[in-house]
Design goal:
With 327 residues, the protein is an alpha/beta fold. The chain is 44% helix and 19% strand. It is built from 11 helices and 10 strands. Strands 1, 2, 3, 4, 5, 6, 7, 8, 9 and 10 form a 10-stranded mixed sheet that branches. β5, α6 and β6 form a beta-alpha-beta unit. α2 packs across α9 and α4 crosses α11.
């Protein structure tokens, strides 16, 4: 009898592990959709476009049903909170970016999620660099010319952004910090209005994301002086980088990453990571991302965790130095 009791006890202890193994072995269930929460409105933005492209690729690779669920609001905080509070069963993932994960912790006094404690990292997906563009009437031809001109005219030039704490704003703040220059920041409610105003010379510069300004650069409506990246943009290969122009620390991009709610089984996150890395190596995927102005990243969950830590420190310093706050 004593041996039977021990046998039953041992079986009971093993049951949770067996259940987890069975659950993850069957994941993803084709009849149960995997929701990829994107903390931005639906409608064709860079994040939405890349997320839907990735969902389609993951569905084919993992033989499941990956669907995008748009949860916009509060610079991504609403969607990220929803993902953090979701059941960690592998059927909810978060597709987010630098602003929500690396900038918001310093920008907001209170957040209902912690980018490093609320999620299991899966992998980096892609990055889209910021690019410095200026009005055609500005008497500069190169990035070096622009720095010299701004230094000679402190607080006289204005750069536009899509709002306090946006990628375009903090890229401009980083530029001023790295080059010891001063410009006026003009926030807009939409990138379209900012673009209209730089063409009209109401503002003189923008640190826009490549996809948002590529049409105006190619049509000659604005001048592109530098890509804030280590490598040139495949969408604008003739525009030199800040690294090429003696500013190796002036780097700014919106990177995208895939995460899962904290506690999601490791076999699930590992399978998604392996699939993600395989997808990002496909020539067709690389060319499709290039057409979106993006470059593939990839890597391990640990590399994402380390990158997120470094990016939080970097942009936190920029936010605090520039005294940017949002209630």
């Amino acid at each position: 009898m004593y041996r039977k009791i021990l046998s039953f006890a041992a079986a009971a202890l093993m049951l949770p592990g067996l259940t987890l193994a069975n659950t993850t072995a069957q994941w993803p269930d084709p009849g149960k959709p995997v929701h990829i929460i994107v903390p931005a409105p639906a409608g064709g933005g860079t994040a939405d476009t890349i997320a839907r492209f990735l969902a389609e690729k993951l569905s084919k690779k993992l033989k499941g049903n990956f669907i995008v669920e748009s949860r916009g609001g509060a610079n991504g905080n609403i969607g990220a909170t929803a993902a953090a509070e979701a059941k960690p069963d592998g059927y909810t993932l978060l597709f987010s970016w630098a602003g929500t994960l690396a900038v918001n912790p310093s920008l907001y006094k209170k957040l209902s999620f912690d980018p490093q404690k609320s999620f299991e990292p899966i992998g980096l997906v892609a990055e889209v660099p910021n690019i410095l563009v200026v009005n055609n009437d500005l008497p500069v031809k190169t990035f070096t010319d622009f720095i010299a001109y701004v230094k000679a005219h402190p607080d006289s030039l204005a750069f536009g952004s899509t709002g306090n704490g946006s990628s375009m704003h903090i890229a401009g703040e980083l530029f001023m910090d790295q080059t010891a220059t001063k410009m006026l920041h003009v926030p807009y409610s939409s990138p379209g209005q900012a673009t209209t105003n730089i063409i009209a010379n109401d503002i003189q510069a923008m640190f826009q994301l490549v996809p948002g300004i590529i049409g105006q650069v190619k049509s000659g409506k604005v001048k592109a002086l530098a890509v804030l990246s280590k490598r040139r943009s495949p969408a604008l290969p003739d525009v030199p980088t800040t690294v090429e122009q003696a500013h190796p620390n002036l780097l700014s991009s919106t990177w995208f990453a895939l995460l899962a709610p904290q506690g999601t089984p490791k076999p699930v996150t590992q399978r998604v990571n392996a699939a993600l890395n395989d997808i990002l190596k496909e020539p067709g995927v690389i060319s499709s991302l290039a057409a979106m102005g993006a470059a593939p990243m990839g890597g391990s969950p640990d590399q994402l965790a380390q990158y997120l830590h470094e990016e939080r420190a970097k942009w936190g310093n920029v936010v605090h130095t520039a005294s940017i706050t949002i209630q």
